Hints:
The chain is α/β, with parallel strands linked by helices. The chain has helices spanning 2-22, 37-45, 87-90, 109-120, 132-143, 147-162, 181-193, 196-205, 211-234, 249-262, 267-277, 282-294, 297-306, 322-361; strands at 25-30, 62-66, 69-74, 98-103, 125-129, 170-172, 240-241, 245-246.
Amino acid sequence: MKNISIKSLLEEMKRKAEELENAKVKIAVSGQSGSGKSSIINTIIGKKVAKVGSVETTLDIQSYNHNGLEFYDLPGCGTKKFPIETYIEDCELLTFDAFIIVTSNRFYENDEWLIKEMVNAGRSVYVVRTKMDEAIVNEKRDNDLEIEEVYTKVKNNIRESTKDINVKGVYLISSVDGVKNDFEKLLNNIEINLDGIKKARFLLDVTPYSRKVLMAKREAVGKIISYSAAASAANGLNPIIGIDVSVDLSILINLSKKISDIFGINEDEINYATKKYGLDGKYVIIGKQFAGKFIAKEGIILLLKRFGTTVASKSFFKYIPLAGQAIAAGIGYKMTYSFGGELLDEAYDLADSILEAAKEKTSNHFYENNTIKY
Ligand SMILES: Nc1nc2c(ncn2[C@@H]2O[C@H](COP(=O)(O)OP(=O)(O)O)[C@@H](O)[C@H]2O)c(=O)[nH]1
Ligand SMILES: [Mg+2]
């Protein structure tokens, strides 16, 4: 009886782990070319996946994904190739979990029509005005406006074109300033409006932009580790017992890669953050050390030795007696658990210090004291 219940418990864990693994969050980002769509996508993912630039724009639909998080960079509505009449079908807009419509100045009639249609279709629509850093500089020069006044002016202007439409919010952002202020609110609200497994997937794949997100990641990763530990124990061939104990390295390498990605601790993401926010070069080095310790085979073996384990070759497995496997299963569980715990703590701490450094480096200029509610 006991065996059966453990087995069904494991199957339940496996089912949940697979459900999370396969979950997808589809986010559409629509706007005229040059409005800053690719920059928004890169900022949300935390690395350069979409080409950015004043001429690097395309008139076709582009998609980018980061694990289960999928972005579709959609051309503005009402072009020759994407006429307004068939835009919603052509871009399959009703299949998305969130719809972000972007402008870097104001919305035009076509955009207003699209916003209305999407809201009427019951979709989550997020209205974004980007390049606020430029607006602030321009308005100071042109009209001697202070930051708060620019904020109010732009918001009123955008509100004007979306009045009477029940959008999920109007967000004034700047992709060069990182995820803060309205950008942070935008991501929080997207997350809030997703449900169940999609919310979990979003939190795993989004760049760790706040302490709150980091903590959510930590909790989810704790569950992933428990599952991996149980799987490593359940799979009698993984852990072996001899003079020393052994665990399957491939499980640990995959686990490390997954957890590193969740916390943005990999070369691409650390380089991106370092360059974007002008961070100290030390994070790149610390990131390399992290990979050497948790992802490289030699590093993992060293760690396991510290936990009192050694690694034996696969061919050794077939000689292990059944009783040995049972004991090893328990030890394999403990090893995976200890390894995962240390990995999680270090990934979390490193992501946290990168986040803090990035927040410090990006100017706080706009709306730190913003009291405008929406
Ligand atoms: N100053 C500033 N420039 C931005 C911002 N967002 C995008 N850009 C710049 O605007 C240009 C077009 O951006 P991109 O993201 O490629 O726009 P897309 O064509 O809509 O995908 C690039 O040169 C970006 O660096 C922003 O928030 N502030
Ligand atoms: Mg683009």
